[in-house]
Write a structure and sequence with these properties.
Pfam families: EAL, FHA. This protein is α/β, with parallel strands linked by helices and 362 residues long. 29% of the residues lie in helices and 27% in strands. The protein is built from 10 helices and 20 strands. An 8-stranded mixed barrel has the order 12-13-14-15-16-17-18-19. A 6-stranded antiparallel β-sheet has the order 2-1-11-10-7-8, with no helix packed on it. α3 runs antiparallel to α4. It starts with a strand and ends with a strand. 34% of the residues are buried.
Amino acid sequence: MAQHYYLEGYTGDSLRSRRYELIKFPSVVGRHADCDLQLNMESISRQHARFELSGDKLILTDLGSTNGTFVNRQCIKRPTEIEAGFVLHLGDHEFRLMVELAPQTQAARDSTRVGIGNLPNQFPLHTREFFELLQRRQVRGFKQLIAKNDGSPFAFELLGRGTHPVLGESPGALFNLAETLDSEVALSRLFRECCFEDAARANLQVPLFFNTHPSESNDFDTLLAELTRLRTLFPRLQLIFEVHEAAITDLDAMAEVRRSLNHLNIGLAYDDFGAGQARLLEVVEVPPDYLKFDIALVRNLDSPNSGRYQLLSTLNSLISGLGIKTLAEGVETEQTAQLCRDIGIDFIQGFLYGRPEPIIED
């Protein structure tokens, strides 16, 4: 199937991008009316640059423009191969090269609006590398120990890390990039599936807590369909689905999620409880198997006389009284661990008992 290229960029002060089609090749871009793609913008020369196909490679050549042609913010002096996701500058006007597998209908071409919502004022670099990461599944699974309150092993939380040689492993940086590309759900799904694959290969036979991106809670039906598929692929894993407490806004929907998880033999944990509004009604109406106290409640827990200790103790008594197991996140010192034991918290997670480590060692 033929590839269809177009440029994505901004016009004036608009915060929404426009789409500029590359209809044929070679295609000359510039201000002159005879150009194949006319861009009547300041700093763009009358005949600024040329796009041409050489086999399956797309080549960009500067045509002696006054203000230069740049690829990923590097000025080019000779014909340069470019790929989808590259950031291009014609003078000081910024574009991102995009590709589709088939041309759109003429009606779609007539619309210059791009339906991916507001984009940042500058396109991020490494777009091509990010989509390469998704396509080549350049991620791996990590695990972090969850201990019983006596320090003995109980479970692991599954965590994803990148393996792309340019983008690095940081999940925070990868999700920041993914959100600018409207691809955070795709990244979350890839992390999750690769974690499950690694956990199955490592024959992990303990409870495995796994996360979702907050955006996935906007469509529980799609999320549950994916979990059903993964459960079929990995029937032996002991899975615990973590949902952020802020996502629990619809009791009826959450009750349906709870029933679906029971059918899939997947446990339920409310994550980051106390990070914002403590949704006690939801805990009562749709009780989870586990509730994880947010690190903000646990950090700096250093005295049984502190207000933080009293608050955590009161919440733990209330939650435990409902038959829900509790877990403290972010425990880094033995003093904090002992105070959690005194409160009666069931499980402890944090650097005291282990940092994230690969599920499958190199």
